[in-house]
Amino acid sequence: MKLSVWTYEGPPHVGAMRVATGMTDLHYVLHAPQGDTYADLLFTMIERRDHRPPVTYTTFQARDLGSDTADLFKTACEDAYARFQPQAMIVGASCTAELIQDDPGGMAETMGMPIPIVPLELPSYQRKENFGCDETFFQLVKALARPVEKTEAITANLIGPTALGFRHRDDITEVTRHLEEMGVGVNVVGPMGATPEDLTRLGAAHFNVLMYPETAESAARWMERELGLPFTKTVPIGVGATRDFLEEVSGITGLPVRTDESRLRLPWYSASVDSTYLTGKRVFLFGDGTHVAAAARIARDEMGFEVVGLGCYNREQARNIRRVAKDYGVEATITDDYLEVEAAIEAAAPEMILGTQMERHIGKRLGIPCAVISAPVHVQDFPARYAPQMGFEGANVIFDTWVHPLVMGLEEHLLHMFREDFEFHDEAGPSHHAAHAPAPRPAEPAHEGGAAPRPAAPDSPRDISTQEEGPAAAGGIEIVWRPAAEKELKKIPFFVRGKAKRNTEAFARERGVAEIDVDTLYEAKAHYAR
Amino acid sequence: MTESFTPPPAAGCRDTPVLKERGQREVFCGLTGIIWLHRKMQDAFFLVVGSRTCAHLLQSAAGVMIFAEPRFGTAILEEGDLAGLADAQEELEREVERLLDRRPDIRQLFLVGSCPSEVIKLDLSRAAERLTQRHAPRVRVLNYSGSGIETTFTEGEDACLASMVPVLPETDRRQLMLVGALPDVVEDQALDLLEKLGVGPVTVLPAARASDQVAVGPNTVVALTQPFLGETLSALERRGARHLAAPFPFGEEGTTAWLRAVAQEFGVSEERFEEVTAAPRARARRAVAQAAETLNRRSLFFFPDSQLEIPLARFLTRECGMEAVEVGAPYINKQVVAPDLDLLAEGPVISEGQDVDLQLDRCRAARPDLTVCGLGLANPLEAEGLTTKWAIELVFTPVHFYEQAGDLAGLFSRPIRRHDLLKLEAAE
């Protein structure tokens, strides 16, 4: 057993629902207990879909558990087919149904339905939502895609976008536009928007654009092997990545790279002097592997940030993320434990977090600005406006999104110069976010004289995680801040104060200094200056 | 004395044949009760023993709240736990140990059963006993099931409260017990009204803290404030308590009838009753009247969700002039809702259980002016041109008693007013 307050991913059958809901004319019969229909509202509320997900649940109850759950499933399949007349169905079990072992796949095969039935094996106690997406799409493609004649013109399939995907809707539009500029047509987009019949025509494309490895890599590999479709390895999030992606497409198709850069604004915005203060901003990245790897490159190479930590929650991407982390000289945080992420962020003391919905709340608690770069996300990250992450417009969106939470340049200078202003002070946060100002930081140990233990906040969820915090836990020596040094520390702007404090303590510990005075503080500052 | 009310119908719905359906049910499981129970019970922690699905449900339902001092979590079963049950018991004890070490403020711990834990027959009641022994007297460990296979939405609260009843201390005191987790402001108003009527002593289940003395015995009279508390009522009756049947305190009429039942039981004079209730009744009437203008003569369709449907249909038809087409409830406990059924005029289909596709067919055929349904159906029905009121809000808003009568009516009139307000189609 594992205690959890937050899960980054749902169970795998939610992934299967994302595929089914993204597609049309496909129905999903899910053997599941009453109550599992809560998943419908992920689609009807968070994504604001205007129709019910194409999912029939058996919703068995305790009284059904005797013998007739298998019948219940059969009836549900028959009713679903009769009512919805889909082109194909997928059938599977949720975590509870997995335990009662009715074998939905086997049963459905014996029912003699006139349409393809694709059984799903989704191990709920081992795997998670993204696996569910990937596996479901893979099984569908395997069952339906056949070698067919290639289209005359050069075309690509866009594979990976699903329902409930972070900005999938607009990424499709943006990538389609880039391909069109190069003279590449789009054959099939799937799962999002495709019918089962469309999937039979996947082989007509000349290559696949793997938009999201999390949700479609297995299908891409299968199509490469069985249908001879190469797939792109670069995910076009960020300016550099988009250019690399276009080169890759050029390599596959033999077409020259052609693109309209007139709409790309990130490079100029980032080069303009107003952005100088972004240089070396310390950021922590967390999310799914694909978005984190892309964000790391943008952060360092296109925004001039310093990446001080990164990680992902989906173990499928662990190897890739470890490689990226190595390149950036940081330790990868590969975990699906929200409290571990919180601890890693606290330890890295970044000036900004780029993460998921959960990191937003970590940021809120720690008083660190945050922007969302990856699922899981809430309703506000399924916006009405055009808001891709991919391609050139995606880069524009990313520039705005990431800069927005930060204190603006002049404000930052003024905070540095004058500290006593009664309304314009550290704890007030960026002045353009009055309603969302970060909570004041909890009293720092420094305020109470060095390594005093942080007072227990019994109701804080943080209590469930790490006990030992503060500098005393890490080293052997009890470090004490002298009042004057403490006062001096407070003069450092709040967004870098955490780092300054940690650096000074590390500096003192290395030299066996137990008491930090003003000189120690400035010695450390000089030592770490670059 | 009841001249302001619509006269009671000649024949209510008490004996109306109930349409019982089985099929796909679009409802929450009882785990969702944790979302409001953990705010109400200040020193309790709710540990769900379940799967990732359970944790996902809680966080999807809890939205932003999970970050503001969550006093709930999920012990997610893993492969290994399914293999050997003995291990699962040990694992559970270890998780609880770690949790209690970190949360010294916890006085009551609920081990909450889920579908997976019930299906593999993980014996949480034994675990609760063992853990109580180990952590007594500081922490009391109880268990109940919030699984979807056994409970629907608000029934989770019922199961939770019922689990507390056997361990309540015994008392011979003649007392009134209010049962049901109400918002603090509503609870205070109710207690204030009862005090003014001279009814007392009054205890409330659940109490905000474990240390608040709640006892039960043969001289306890139970007034339910929520219709979904059948199991808790049975458990209290087994302890000798007596049920006070009454309509539920929604709207002016419901609140008056509820209070009157209590007043009669405790021998409150008619003069005093009038004196205490006259002003708030007039206030409630005025407040309801505003929303009723919008609601009057509009048709109403309830999908099953919380068991609040019958009392609310009674309020909306009698005090707001609506016309009920169908009143669906996940479960109908006749003992509990009979007084409300008596007041609900004959006409609507009363349905219990659900086959969602068939019910949707009926709803589309009826094209009601307002459909009360869950969030899984609300937007899809709106897209079909049906105005909806999403039902979960009725559990997450203060709606009981006089001072909230206007707000309650407002919850239903708001979607209709919004529909009339938006001029989007014209603009296109």
TrEMBL record, chain A:
UniProt source species: Rhodosalinus sediminis
Keyword Metal-binding part of the UniProt annotation: yes
Biased composition (Low complexity): 448-459
Gene3D superfamilies referenced in this protein's UniProt entry, alphabetically: 1.20.89.20, Nitrogenase molybdenum iron protein domain, Proto-chlorophyllide reductase 57 kD subunit B
Domain Light-independent protochlorophyllide reductase subunit B-like C-terminal residue range list: 481-525
Pfam families tied to this protein: Oxidored_nitro, PCP_red
Chain positions covered by the region annotation Disordered: 428-477
Protein name, as recorded: Light-independent protochlorophyllide reductase subunit B
